[in-house]
Amino acid sequence: MADTKAMRPWRRGLGKLNGMKYLANRIRGWLPKDFNLALAKKMPKARWWKPLWIVSILGIIISAFVLFLIGYTALERIILGVVFAFLCLGVAYYIRVRPSITVNRVVYIGLGIGIGWVMWVIYVVSGIGRWVNDTLGVWPDLIIGFAVLYIVGALIGDRIGKRRNYQLPLSP
């Protein structure tokens, strides 16, 4: 087919359209735009899924019992550790078995707070914190060190989650 002037604007528009789709896909992340959690629930679970939770619970109970028999720690510390481990296991079960956008967003924000902690460590170790404390005083140092860095980290985590449509990797 011959390339006529009448076809050129159409071809230019198609090129811009493809460029916009490419840009939108790059900004949005690796998940499709209309990802449906109902489809994820219909996927069959792995064969090792149920034994994983059973082994985790038994591992917590057996390790607590062994620590009690050895007398390594006090009984109230063992009970507190078991309660905390079961809470963490329950959260992990909820995140993996019953996924929802809200819980996944909280997980991504928690990841961002971890990023904020890394930024705080860099802030303290690099000497910037000491310089801010010496020049501006204690309160600006505390505000920057504990509020700003963690908030920025939480926003980074939320942005990462938004880019991935708040879907966790390897989610069912």
Notes on the structure:
It is a single chain. Helix 5 runs antiparallel to helix 7 (138-163) and helix 6 packs across helix 7. This protein has seven helices and no strands. The model has no long low-confidence stretch (mean pLDDT 77). Helix content is 76%, strand content 0%. Among the domains are: 47-98; 101-165, no CATH class. The chain has 172 residues and is mainly alpha-helical.
Characteristic terms for this protein:
172 residues, mainly alpha, 7 helices, flat
By DSSP (H or I, 4+ residues per run), the number of helices equals 7
Oligomer state equals: single chain
The shape, in one word, is: flat
Roughly what fraction of the amino acids lie in strands?
under 5%
Class from helix and strand fractions: mainly alpha
Largest sheet: none
Task: Give the uncertain stretches in residue-range form.
Answer: none
Order of helices and strands: HHHHHHH
Could you give the count of β-strands?
0
Proportion of residues in helical segments:
over 70%
Report how far apart the termini are.
48 Å
Query: What's the overall average pLDDT, rounded?
Result: 77
